[in-house]
## 1
Amino acid sequence: MSTLANVMEISASAMAANRFWLERISNNLANANTTRGPNGEPYRREVPIFAEVLKREVMGEEIPGGVEATGVVKDQTPFPRIYNPGHPHADAQGFVSMPNVNVITEMVDMITAARTYEANITVSTSAKSMMSKAIEIGR
Amino acid sequence: MISGINTHRISAADPFKQFDVEFSRPSLRASQVSPILEGAMPLDGLENLEASEGPTFGEVLKNAVQSVESEKAKAESIALDFATGKPVDIHTMMIQVAKADVMMQVTSAVVSKSATSLNQLLQTQV
C-alpha cells in the first residue's frame, strides 16, 4: 500500500505510546497516597521511556517506524516524609514516607499525553483526507 | 460479439471472475481490427498492440480487489476482537477501518475508471 498508509501506522504507534503514558499517569495518581507497596516501600512514581522505532528500508528508501514505549523507570527522587505518629506505617520518630508522586506534575503530564494523542489523530485524519483527495484526481 | 460487462451474470462468490473472462477475451486485438483497416490506410504501430504484454483489465481489477480484501479482513478481525472484549486499542481499530475505507474507495474509483475506458474503447468507430 501507499506510503500515506505508513503515516497512519506511525500515528497509530504514537497513539499507543500515549495510551501507555496515560496508563502510567493513572497508576501514579491512583497510588498518590499509597504508603505500602508489595516491596514494603511507599509507591514510587513510574515514568515511561519512549524510543524511536528502527527505520525500515524498503526499496532503497528509509521509512520511519514511529515511536515505541520501551519500558518504565521508577522515579528515584526521595520520598517526602510527613509527621503523622498515629499512622501504622510511621517510623520510630513518627514520620511517614509518602509516595514521590506530585499530583500537579501528573496533571500536566496528562494534558501533554492527551494533546499529543489528539495531534496524532489529526495527522492520521489528514493522511486519510489526502488519500481521499488523491482519488479525486481525474474525476 | 463484443459485449460489455454482463452485470446480471456476476456471481456473488467471485464478482470479478466475470470481468476477468470478459476483459481478457482478445476480441479487440489488432489482428481482428486490421483486416478492415488494411484497405483504407496502413496504421503503423497497430500490430505492436498484440505484442504488448500488460495486465488485462481483469487482472488489474482482481489485484485491486484482493488488496482491499486483505485490509477489510484485518479491520474485521480487529473489530471482532474489540467487540468480544479483547484488549484492542480503539485507535488501532479506527485506523484499520479508515484504511479499509480508503482502499475501498480507491478500488471503486479504479473499477469505474476501467469500465469507462473499456466502454470508450468499445465505442470506437471502425
## 2
Amino acid sequence: MAAVTAERRRAPRAHRLRAFWHRTPRSFRIGAFILLVHLIVAVTGPFWAPYGFAQMGAGIPLSGMSWAHPFGIDQLSRDIFSRVVHGSHIVILLSLSGTALGLVVGAIVGLLSGYVGGWFDDILQRFIEALISIPFLVLALLAMAAAGPEVAGNPVLVVLVVALVYAPRIARMARAAAIDIATRDYVTVARLRGESPWSVMRRELLPNATGVLLVEFALRAGYAPVLIGSLGFLGFGLRPPTPEWGLMISENRALLMVSPITVLGPGLTLASLVVGLNLFTEGFARILGRSVRLGER
Amino acid sequence: MSGAETLLRAVDLQVSYRQQEGWLPVLHRINFAILRGETFGLVGESGCGKSTVALQLLGYRHPNSRVDGGHIEFGGRDLLELPRRELDRIRGNRISFVPQNPTTALNPGMRVGDQVCEILLLHKRAADQNQALQRVVELFGLVGLPSPKLLVERYPHQLSGGQQQRVCIAMALACDPDLVVLDEPTTGLDVTAQEQIVELLIDLRRRIGLSMLYVTHDLGLLSQIADRVGVMYAGHMVEIAPVAELFRQPRHPYTRGLIGSIPRIDRPEEPAARPLRGLLRRDELPEGCPFQPRCDFAEASCATNRQRLDRVAPGHEVACQRWRALLAPAVAAAGEPTTPPVRPEPEPPLLALDHLSIAYGAGGGALARFLGAAPFVAVHDLDLAVAPGETLALVGESGSGKSTVARAVSGLLRPYEGQVRLHGRSLAGLVRERPGEQRREIQYIFQNPDASLNPRARIGTTLARPLEMFFDLDRRAIRARVLEALDDVRLDAGYAERYPDQLSGGERQRVAIARALIARPTLLLCDEVLSALDVSVQANILDLLRRLRAEHQVAMLFISHDLAVVRSIADKVGVLFQGRLMELGRTADIFSAPFHPYTHSLLMAVPDPDRPRRSQTAGRRPAAGPPKAAGCPYAGRCAWQAGAICEQTAPPCRKTERGVAIYCHLPLDELTARAHWTPSDEPAAMPAPTTFPA
C-alpha cells in the first residue's frame, strides 16, 4: 500500500492573492466594491461635500432634483445630498458597531445555550423570549429612560440600545445553529475529550455557524439606521440637526408626495449600503463554506 | 440469452456535470444493453457514475447536468430526445425507479396506499380511487407486505425500513413496467432486511418476468441477483460479463481488484492479500485508460490509448488493451503479509462490562417515573471483558444495541444498571465526571468520517487538539507528534495544512483514526468505521487498523454489522440481539457449528458469490416484536424455535467444548445438526478463480 501523497506548490504571495480574488464569488466582489465606495465617502465626505450638514439657504426648498442638488432641497432649504454625505460616517459607525456588539453578545449566549441545553437553556430562552416579546421601540425607550436624561443623545447609548434590541434575536438564530451543529460527531469527539463548553463553542461551533451569523448580521445592520432614526424622531437618540439617514427619512416623510426625492435620496443610499453588505457577507460566507480551498486546486 | 429481445440500449452515452470551473465529464461513451426479462447489474465505487446512468434512463435532467452525446433507445425511440410530456408518460409507467433511501422517498404526510394510488391514477391504470386501492392491496400482497388491507392506511413512519422499501417496490411495479431501475435499494437496510428484499426481487423476477437495472457498490450482492454485470470505473464501462463468468474469469484488472477486495467470510485472511491500491483521483485521470495509475498491469501506452470494449467471449466485453496478456493467473498478491493474530495470554481484562444495562429515557426524573414513563431498555444485563490488545467485535442488526454499548463505555450515556470497569476500576457514568487520564485511554472512532472532522479546522489543528488536552508538550513536540500520527496512517505531512473537504472519505477516516491514536489510548471504540466507505477503501482501512493495533498494542471494541469484516479482524465476537447477548466466543469458533439460531441466520444472509443462488425464497420471517420481558428475545423470529418455553423462560447459557457461550434452549448437538452454513472447505459451487484456460 503506497503512501498517499499531497503535493503543494507555493506561488508568490501577490499571485496567490490575485488568484484568490478571481475565484471569489461575484457577489463578494460586487459587495466589496459597494462597501468600499461607502467607506470612502464616509471618510472623505466632510471635505468635499458642497454644503454643510446644517447649512441653510442652499436653494429653493423642495425644488426637486437638479445637477446642483442631486437629492433635492429639504423644507429648511438644506442640500440633502450634502447631508447624506455628512451622515455617512454616523450611520456606518453607529449602526455597524451596534449590530456588531449585538452579534457578539447574541452569538456567545445563543451558541452556549444551544450546546449546554438543559435548565440553563430553558431559563435563558424564557428570558430571551421575554425580551423579544417587548416591541423593540418600547424596549429601546425603556433603556433610554432608564439611562436618564443626561445621557440621552449620547452615541454610545445609541450603540448599546441597538445591541440590546438585536442581541436576543441573534441569540435565537445562534441557538438554532448550535443545536444543529452539536449533534455532529466532531462535537461528540470534543465532548469525549472533556472540552469545556466555552472551548467547544469557540473551536467547533463558532467556525461552523459563521455563515448563519454573517447573514444575520447583514440583515440586522441594514435595519439599524432606521431604528436609530426612529429613536431620534421620538426625541431620544440623536437630535434632529444630525444628518443621520433614518432621521432624514422620518423628517421628510410628510413631504413624500411633494418632493419624493427628499426621501428617496437617503432611502436609496441606505438601500445600496444594505445590498452591498448583504452581497459581501453572503459571498464571504460562501468563501468560508468552501474553506480556503479557493487559492489551491 | 441470445434469442431475447433487447429492451433498452444505451449508445455512446456522455454526460457532464457543472462544476465551479466548468463542465466535468462524468460519463464517457457508455454502451450497454438490457434484454427483456434479465437483470443487469451496474457496479463500481462511489463517484464512478453508476447512479448517473440510472437517472439518465429515467430521463432525469438536472439543471446542473448536460448530455453531451449518445442516445438511449427504448421502445424504438430515443429517451434523451423525447419532449417532457412524452417522457412523463414513460416514467413510472414503463420505466420505474426504486430509490436508495425509502425513508426520504416516501412522503411522510401521506398514507402509503394513497401514494401508490397516485401513480395508478396518474397513468390511468385505474378508473377511480376504489379500483386503484384494490390494485394497491394486490400489489402489497405481491411484494410480501403482511396484511395489505391494513397497511394501505398506514403512514410511512409506522413501517419498518424493509417494509418501506417494499412499498417503494410496489410503487415501481404499479404500472407493470418494462424495466425497473433500482439504485442501491438495500444499502440503507440491515443484512437480514437486505436478504429479504433480494429474495423478493428474485422471486418477482421469476413470477412476473421483471427486467431490472440493479445499481450497487456491492459485487457480492450482484452475484445473487444479476444475470449480467457491467463494471464502471471513473465514468467508463470497463467490463460487461455474465455474472458467473465475471467471478470466474474477471478480465479487467479493476474487476479483479474489486473481487479481491470483497471481504470474504469464508476466507478471512484474503482481503488483505490483494486490495486495490491508491484512490480514484478525478484530477489525475490519464487520456487513455482511467485505471492506468492504479493498475498493476499497466504499460506506458495504457495512459494514452483510449480503451474500447472488446469482445473476449460471447457476451463478455472488456475495455483493456492488455486483457490477452492477463490470461496467465498472475493475480497480484502484493500486499503486506498478515501475521497471525497474537493470542494474548489470559490477563486481567482491560475493559469489563459488569451486568450492564443501558436505557434511554431513564433520566426523565421522578415525575416521569411516577407517571409511568418506563425507560426503554436498549441493552440488557450484558457481561463482557476485553483483554489488553484484544479485539472484541459486537455484531447484530440495527437496533440491537451494539452502538449503545460503545456510547456507554465512552461515557456519552449513563448506565442504567451495572458498571463499566477499566483496569478493574469502575468508571464514572458520564464523560465529564471522569478524570483526564481515563478520557485519554478510551478513544472513539465514528462511522461517518464526513461528520467526525470539523470542516473548518485544518487536519493539523484537529490532530493537535488531543495533545494539547492530554499532554504537556511544546509547539515543536506537538508538530512532531502530529506528523508522526499522519505517517502512521500513511498520509504525508502536506495533509496537516488541508481541510477535511479536500480529502476523500477514506483519507478522512484515516485522519479520524490518527486523531484517536494520537492520544495513546488503550481502548479504541470503532463504531461501524468501515460501513460508510467503498469496498476497496474498506480493505485498505481494515489493513491499516490491523497493523496499528499490533504497533500500538491497543484493544478494540469493534462494532459492525458486516460479518466478513468482523471475521477478518476480531479475536472474539459477541452477537447481540435486541440488547441481549446471544453468543460469545473466539472468532473461529463463532464461525463454525454449533451456531446460535440468530448467528446462523446472520451468516446465511451474507451474499456469497461461491454459494449457489437461492432458487426459492426461504420461509417468511415476521418482523421483530417488542422485546419480551421474559423469555428469549429472538423467540417469534427464530426458525428453530423449540416451543413455548422460548417465550416464557430466559434461555440458559450453554458452553461448547471450545468455550463459546450460546444462549439458547436447544441443546448443543441439536444446534450442530441444524447448521447449514459451513466455513471455507465446503466444495464451491463454481470453479475456483484460479482455473484460467491456457
## 3
Amino acid sequence: MPALKSLLRTPWFWGIIGIVLLLSLNVVKDPTYLAVGINPATGQLAGNLLDILRVSAPIIMIALGMTFVIATKGIDLSVGSIMAVGGAAAMELLRALNAPSSFGAMFTAIGLALLLGAVLGLVNGLLVSIVGLQPFISTLVMMLAARGIARVITGGQNTNSQNQPFQQISNGQVLGLPISFVIAIAIVVVVTVIMRRTALGLMIESIGVNPDASRLAGIRPRPILITVYVLSGVLAAGGGLFTVSEVMTVDVSGTGYQMELDAILAVVIGGTSLAGGKFSILGSTVGALLIATLNKTVLFLGVSAAATPAFKAIVIVLLVLLQSERVRTFVLQAGRRRTRKEVVA
Amino acid sequence: MSTTVSPPSPSHGTEVPVRGLAISRMWGRSQSVIPTLAAVLLLVAMLVYAELAYGRVFHAGTISSLLVSFAPTIILAVGMTIVILSGGIDLSVGAVVAFTSVSGVMLMNNGVNGWVAVILMIGFGALFGLVSGVLIQYFNVQPFIATLAMMFLARGLASILSTVPVQAPEGAPILALATDWKIVDGPKVNDFVLTPGFFVAVLVVVGAFVLLHRTRTGRTVYGIGGAENSAQLMGLPVARTRVLIYILSGALAGLAAVVYTAEVGGKAQNVTGIGWELDAIAAVVIGGTLLTGGAGYVLGSVVGSLVLAALAMIITKDGGIRPEYLTIITGGILLAFVLLQRVLTARRRK
C-alpha cells in the first residue's frame, strides 16, 4: 500500500495516466489508432504511436533545458525562437554546402546550430546572472530578438535544403524507433547522469530553494545560472534541428512558434514547481510525451491546430492552481474534516 | 527589492512637511527622472537625425500620421505602466488585442449593435485581466506565468473564432473612430490630421495620470510596487487594487483593439498584435519606469512610445534597414534602458 500511495503522489504517474486517457480517446474514435504496420515504400515501421514519438523529440529537448532553468526559479521564454535560429542556421549552411549525401556537412550544420544556441543561451545567462535582470524579461527580449535573427539568417525566406544524412535524423529509424527520439532519450540519460552523479543537480536545486542560503553555503550562483541557460539554449537549438530535419525546411515564423509554452507545460506536468527548487527530469520527459500526444490528439479530433494553445493554457492554469498554497490548504482541510467525521462516527 | 526611490508617499493622511525629508525626496525624484530625461533626449536626437538624414520629418503630415498610428501602442503602454508600477507584468495584451478585435468584428457581423460590440470588446479585455488578477492575487501565481497563460488562451480563442481576416460591416460605428479631423489645413498634403482614436489615447493618458497621481488607488499602486508588505501593513487595499490593475490593463488592451481595428478599416485577424506586449514593455521601460515597480511616470511611457514610433519611422524612411531587424533593434534599445536602470539603482543603493 505505501508503494501505491507514493506512486499516486508522483507527478509523472499522472502524466502517464493522461497519455493513456488521450490514447484511449483516440482509440474510441478509431479502433485501429494504435496499430503499427510496415510502410511498404520505405520498409520502416509506421503508425500513430511512432508519429507521436517523433514529434515528442524536440519537446523532450526543450523541456529538459527548461527543467533546470525553472529549478533555479528562472524561466526561458526564448527556447521556441532559438529552435528557429538553430533550424535556420542548419538549413542555410546545408544549402550553401550543397552536399546531399555528406556526413561532414551534416555535422558542420549541427555544430553551427548548437554553437548559435549556446551563444544565445550565454547572452540570457549573462543578463540573468551578471546583470541581474529578471529571467522573464531577458528571455522575452531574446524570444523576439532570436526570431528576428532567424529571419536575418535566411533573409526572411523559408529556406529548404537537401542532405540525406540530416534528413534521416527525423525520418530514419533504429530498432523501429525514430532516430530523433532515440537521440533525445540518449541526451536525457546523459544529462540525468551528469546532474545526479555530480553535485551540479543539487546546486541547481539549492539555488532554486534558497539563493541566499546556498550562497552562504559556498555555492557561487553565477556559473551555475550561466550553465543552466547555455544548456537550455543548446538543447533548444537541437530541438530546432529535429523539427527542420522532418521536412528539410525552416519556417522562420513557424518553427518553434509558441513552443516555450509546451516546454513550460511539460515541466509543470512533470512536477517541477514554477517556484523553483526540486526538479524531475523523468517527470519533464513524461510531460513532453503527454504534450506530443495532446498535439496529435487535437489534430486527430479535427480541431484547428491554431486552437491548441487555448487548451494548453487552460491545462497550465489548472496545474498552477493545484500547486498554489490556497488550493492545497483547502484540499488538506477538506481531508482532515473527513477523517474527523470518520473518527466521530 | 528595497525602496530606494521615494514615490508619492502612499499615505492616506495629510503629509507633514519635514525639511530633511523633503530635500531627500526631491533628490530621490530628480534621480528617478534621469531615465525619462534620457528618453526625451533620445527622442529629440532621433527626430533631428531623421530630419537631417531624410528630411520632411518636422512636417505636420508626418508627425500627425505617426501620432495616429501609434495611438494603440500608447494605450497599451499606459496600461502596462500601471501594471509594472505595481511590480507586475502583463504579457497577454497583444493576444488580448487579437481576441477582442476578432470577436468584436464578428459580433458586429452577426447583427449586434455596433456600440454594444465596442463595449463588449473592452469588457472581454477586462475579463482576461480579471482572470490574471485573481490568479496572481489570490493564488500566488507569478504575474508572468498567469499572463503568459492568458496570452496563449486569448490567441488560441481568437484562432478558434477565425483564422482568416474578418471585416467589419460598412458603416459600423467603430469606423467613426478613424475619421480624419483636419486640425491645421496646411499647404498641399501637409495637413495636421488627427483621428478620434488619437484623442481616445490622449484621454487614456490624462485619465491614468489623474488616477496615478491624484487618487488613493494610484498611491496604492506605487505602494504595492515599492514595498508590498508595508502597503499591506499600512492598511492599503492591496488585494482589491491589484485585481483592479490587471482588469484595467485588460480593458485598455480591449480599447487599444477598438482604436486599432478602426484605424485599419475594420479588418481583424487572429495574428494581430504578436509582439505588442514587448513594444508596450519597451515603451514603459524607455520612459523610465523601473521594471521592479514602485517608481515611474505614465508620461514617460508616452515618450517611450514616441521613441518607438520615431524608430519605426526611421526604419521605413531609410529603406536600407530590413524589417527583420526591427524586433532586434527594439529588443536592443529595451535592453540598453534596462541596463541604464540597473546602473542608476545600483548607484543609488550605495
## 4
Amino acid sequence: MTGSTRHLCVLVVEDETLIRWSIAETLAQKGHRVVEASDARGAVRALSSEPEQIDVVLLDYRLPDSDDLGLLKNVRRLSPESAVVMMTAFGTPEVTKDALDLGAYRVLNKPFDIHGIEPLLQEAHDSRSGASTRPH
Amino acid sequence: MTVGTRAFFLVGPEKSALLELAIRGSRTDDATAKMLAVSYVQARSVDILDPKDRAAQVLRALIDSAVDGIIVIDAQGRIETFNPAAERLFGHRQEEVVGRNVTMLMPSPYREEHDRYLSRYLETGHAKIIGIGREVTGLRRDGTTFPLHLSVGEMIVGSERKFTGIVHDLTERAKLIEQLRGSEERWRSVIESAVDGIVVIDSNGRIEAFNQAAERLFGYQVSELLGRNVNVLMPSPYHEEHDGYLARYLATGEAKIIGTGREVMGKRRDGTTFPLRLSVGEMSIGGERKFTGILHDLTARVRMEEQLREQASLVRLGEMAAVIAHEVKNPLAGIRGAVQVIGGRLPADSREAAVTGEIISRIDTLNGLIQDLLLFARPPQPKPTLVDVSSLISTTVDLLIRDTALSEIDIQVEGASAPVVADPELLKIVFQNLIVNGAQAMRGKGRIRVSIGASDVACEVRFIDAGPGIPPDIRQKIFTPFFTTKARGTGLGLPTARRLVEAHGGTIHVECPPAGGTTVTIRLPVDRVTASTRADGPVLERGSIEP
C-alpha cells in the first residue's frame, strides 16, 4: 500500500451486481465511502448530484447504456478532479491505449483479485492529488 | 485448248492420217489465236501418211504430247530425245540439250556421280534407279532446282542400249506437303505450348496424344503413356468406372461429360491426387472416333478457396470468442470477487475457506482457457520491434524452469541470429507453447534443444525434443484448433503458435525424424539492414528486391 490511507469516496459503475457487491463490501470494510451506479445514466447522476467530491471512479467499459469511451470522457468533463480506473472483460490493447490517453489511471482486466482493488484506488487517487492543487 | 498447246488427232477413213493441231498466237487475244489455229490446219491440212511411217509418227506424237517429261539417253549418257514437257520442266530447248550429257540436268552431287553410276550399271548390271523410280532433284536452265519423280527404263535399239527417263514434276506435291507439315507444326506448337493439359484418346480409352502441360500436371513423360488406358490418370472410383462410361457412351450416345465439362480429380504418377476441370470434345479422324480432354489444374484455386474458408471461419471464431469472452469473464469476475469476499469472512483455517480458495483457482483456470481461445481466435496485431531471438528464448526458458512441471526438463539453447523484427510478447508465447509441448511429450523429463540458426533472409529456430514423436496419422491434425491428445489440453498451443508465427510473416514446420523425437522449426524473416550490418559492417544498399 502506497501513499496516504485516507478514506476515499469511490463511485463504482458496474452492471454486474456480484462485482459491484464484492467491490463495495471490500472498500466499505476498509472504511471508504462507496456510491454505486449500474449504468451510465446513474453514473452521470451521481457525479452531478453527489454533494461530496468523488475521489475515484471505478468504471466498467461496457454498460447497458454505454459501449464506448464516451462515458469516460463525460466523467472526465463532469469531475476532472476524480481519478478513473476502468474495468473491462475484454480489453483490446487499442481500447486500453485510448482509455489511458483519455486520462484513465489504469485499465483493469476482469476477472481480477478483489484484494488488489483498494491499494490500486489509493494509488490512483495519490496520482491525482499529487498533480492537483485541491486541498485535502 | 489454249494458246501454245498442240494436239494430234488420227483422222481419215482408217484413221491413217495424223492431224496436228497447234494453236499459236497472241496470248492476250484468244480470238486471234483461234483464227491462227484454223489457218494452220488449212495450210497443213490432213497429211495422208505412208503406212510405214505411221507407227513412228504416232510414237513421236505420243512423246511430244506427253504431260511428263521424256528424256532418252544413250549408253554414254548423251541426250537423244527431250520432249516438249521436258523442255517446259527444265527450261531448255531440245536443240540445246540433244547430244549433251544428261548430267547437265542434275545438281551436285548427282551431276558428278551419274557417269559412274551409268558405267557401273553397264558393267555390272547393278541398278540404282533403272527399272524402278525414285524422287530426285532436277536442275533448271536458270540454275534453280525442283523435285521430280524419275522412272528409268532400259531399251535396246539396234544394238545400242538406251535409257528412257520419265520425269514427273513434284513441285506442287512438295509444296502441298510443306504446307501440311507447316500446318501440323503450327497445331503441334499450339498444343504443346498450351497452358492446359491436352489428352487425346481413342474409342478404347487408349492415350494417343499427351501434351507438355499434361506431362507437367501428371508427372509422366508422354512416352510412358502413349497406348495406355487413360484411366491411369484417374483415382478410384473413376479409374474403375471410366471404361464403362466410354463403352456406354459409344453404344448409347448418353454423355456424362463429353461436350460439357466438370470438376474431377486427377492422379499423378506419384499417386497423389489433385483437382482439375476437365472438358471433353469428340472428333472423328479417318472414320475413327476420338476424344480430346482439356485439363485445367484447379489446385491453386482450391487451395485459395480453402484458405479463404479457413480465414472466414477464423474471423467468425474471433467474433464468437470476443462475445464469449465478455459474457463469460464478466460473471467470472463477479463470482471471483464475491467468493473472495465471502472467503475472507470465514475462519482462515476452516475447510470452507480452503474451498473458496479452490473455487478461485478453478475460475482462474477457466479464465486461462478463455484467454487461450482469444489469443488463437483473435491474436493481437504484432507490435514489431527489433528482437534478439536468443536472449528472448533465454528469458522465456528462465521463466519456464520455475514451473514445477518443467523442473526435470533440461533446456539447452545454442546458436545465434541477427535480430528479427517481431513482437517479443507474441514470440514469447510461441516459444513457451513449443517448449511446454516438448516437455509434455517427454512426460516432464529429458532434454530439449533449442537451436538458433540464420541465413540472409531468415532466422531459424528449431525445438528438438526426445519424446516419442507424433504418429503419422495425427501429424496432419496437429495444427487443427482444439485437436489434442492430452487428457487435459485445449488443443490450441500449436495452432496459436502457427497463427502468431504467420502473423510475423514466418513459417512453422513439424518433423519427426526416423531417429525419434519431434523437431519444430520456425522461420522468421530477419531484419535485412541489421543482418547486413552484422555480416558486412557498414550498411550498404543491397541489390535485393523486397518480397
